[in-house]
Amino acid sequence: MTLGIFSLMTSELLPVGLLTPVGDALDVSEGRAGLMVTIPGLVAALSAPLITVAAGRMDRRLVLALLIGMMGAANLASAFATDFAVVLAARFLIGISVGGFWALAGGIALRLVPQRHVVRATAVIFSGVEAASVLGVPAGTFLGGLSSWRTAFGAVGVLGLVALTAMLFLVPRLPPQRTLGLTDLPAVFRNNAGVRVGIMMTVLIITGHFTAYTFLRPVLQGSGVDGGSIGMLLLAFGVAGLCGNFIAGALVDRWLPQTALGISLVLTVAMVAVAVTDTTAVSAAGMLALWGLGYGAVPVTLQTWMFRSAPDAVEAASSLFVSAFNLSIAAGALIGGLVVDALSPTSVLWIGGVLTALTVLVIGTSVRAGRRTPSAPEQ
Fold first, then answer.
1. Could you give the angle at which helices 230-251 and 298-309 cross, rounded to 10 degrees?
2. Mind listing the pLDDT tens digit for each residue in 53-67?
3. Closest-CA residue to 38 (of 156, 295, 210, 237)
4. How far is CA 61 from CA 108, 212, 304, in A?
């Protein structure tokens, strides 16, 4: 499951490190090239609830295998594309894969381990998100510089087929525990204050992050950082993110609201620091490490928040979370693209910082209103 998440997130985020070469090769602006992140995010937001419902009584392992296989094929198609429209069509298919896979995989830990190990197992599965930042995006960026962006997309496509094979042979059968209807999803949102707060936090944090992170390469290059150093800087971001994932996995069991607050503060400080500091490769590495530490804690923290808010409707809550997460990726990339083309790359850092800072108000307002925050389950 971790390998599947890793390959999917590498696929979704790979354009972050390759916006400039893809744009140059296919004759599109950097802002328009950002659609490679926007489109799969939008499609994933729609496909997460739809696939969760459509899966019905199907074995979850089979559905996950089909989705990961489609992702691999779509990346191979991108590798051979000669027109930007073909790349966007492939990114559409990747969005379906990301949304459906993540929505179903989010609750898989509950099926694979005893209750007392669920948080740790969730952290392990979602370490694939950070491993994609540590290995996937930097490796893809490095491979793209060493050979071409086509080679990078092709490599991710092959990785998807490897994940498909591993899933078929190593993941046990996972028959559905209950069948969801489309009405179950709005009901969970409408009737559960914890779920609503979790969705609001997700929208603010993820939109803010991807408004800035999608255009990190032009931001750094515009500050004078050599393009050849971008891969290593993304590696620093990813290594810190992997640490943040496991730190959060240890903290959220007892201090879930406090961890969410800490994430928003760290992300805000990191983005503002990049915006106001005279950037060198060394200083950028430190600021991106702080940024990565905060973002690395996001998936396991928010996923745990949703699980605890709706323990009797895990797949429904997970679908809403994944939908909000990916819609926010798309919104962030779209906002950032418009801002980069209209103003300057640095502007996206300020917008991202404001959005992540608003999360503090969301949690604080929820606590002051007397709403109950998700608590740890009985051991």
1. 30
2. 777 778 888 888 999
3. 210
4. 10, 35, 22
